[in-house]
Amino acid sequence: MKIVENKSRNILGREIIANVNPGTKIFTDQWPSYISFFGDQNIYSHNFVNHSLNFVDPVDGTHTQTIESLWSEFKRFKRKYGYSKQRLIY
């Protein structure tokens, strides 16, 4: 995990390019920053799910449940033990 200044297209795009290998298949929801960034490049394969319609795309099976589960575990850990920014990469 990495702390970022905000969730803008430029910040997220910079972090994705710096930390994700070209050609990686990436699954997201329809957060506007993701749609904008991935729509303007051809380095990554991008699948997304429209949560206003469903949680799993019925055509290609795209979902974000794995990362949602990770966030849930992180929040549970944070409530129980607290956390220090020094332990996270940033």
From TrEMBL:
InterPro entries: IS1016-like_transposase (IPR053164), Tnp_ISXO2-like (IPR024445). Residues 2-78 form the ISXO2-like transposase domain. It comes from the Eukaryota. Coiled coil: none annotated. This is ISXO2-like transposase domain-containing protein. It comes from Anncaliia algerae PRA339. The lineage of its organism: Eukaryota, Fungi, Fungi incertae sedis, Microsporidia, Tubulinosematoidea.
